[in-house]
Amino acid sequence: MQIPPLATSIIGSHSIPVWLITATEAIARGEYGPKDAREMFDDAVDLALREQEEAGLDIISDGEMRRMGFFTAGFYHHMTGLRAEPAQRKLGPAGHDQREKYHADEAIQAPNGLGLVDEFEYARSRTTKPLKVPCAGPFTLAGRILPGPVYADRLEAAFGLAEVINAELKALVAAGAEFIQLDEPSYAVHSSKHDTQTFIDLFSWTIDGVDARIGLHLCFGNFVGRPVAHRTYAPLFPHVLDLNIDEFAMEFANRELAELALTAQIAEAGKTVAAGLVDVKNYFVETPEIVADRIARALEHVPADQLVVTPDCGFSETARWATNAKLQAMVAGTQLARQRAGVA
Length: 344
Prior knowledge:
Number of helices: 10
Largest sheet: 7 strands, parallel
């Protein structure tokens, strides 16, 4: 896949329409048959693709519309060997401690895959735009699996999940996928607790033999629009540059472009930077001029042909009106930045 200079893209998820939320609740109550549910999710993907195309994005995704809840509906229900643990707090302000965890009663497997191939094939049939396929990474998914007799700790669970994900990624490539992004916010969230080499080994195991453009999305969490960590990438550098990938996707807008200079090291390593220059955790809608100014700051560290303009994170926690306004401003700001920089 060829990436044009100052390309625009989405991280992964698109904003969730209200009818998808109520429909998913109806499915849980048993009110939809499987064909009804399929039609509903197809419609949601069509909406996400159309709104991204209308915004003018260069690289799009299916919006992760079939992954309500990102973790639970998107991945875990495809796996065997897991037993859900009820959330320990169910009332009060939304937070990570309200989310369920899982016990591993046996080695985790996904005998019918993780659903990504079907997601990709449908999206590919509905658009001619370049597609990125996001996939949750093993360390992030392992964070909801409790230690036990099968997996002594999070890392053991992650390496077990890496085999499952690796098989899915290879199936994606066989289906025609050219660009796959692994979402691993937990790398940055837990950078002070684990040696960076451990993350490198785990990631290498996950993408071994996967012949595609590979991206790595590093953020600080976005559940109900909230981060969950001290927001710094510095502990991951320079070792994270040893990863055999093509692109790093990182958030900068909501941190007032802090640590933007780190992107120079990524560019020097010959990799692309997907720089988050639009804040998905803020309902202030950036103007095109603000976006263009942020791009100019990024161009001080990264050449135009190695810079992709993105939001900080996915839009699944952002209202639809704000999502579309922010995407339109991002594209308009990128066009302005191209004019200022003389980039075709």
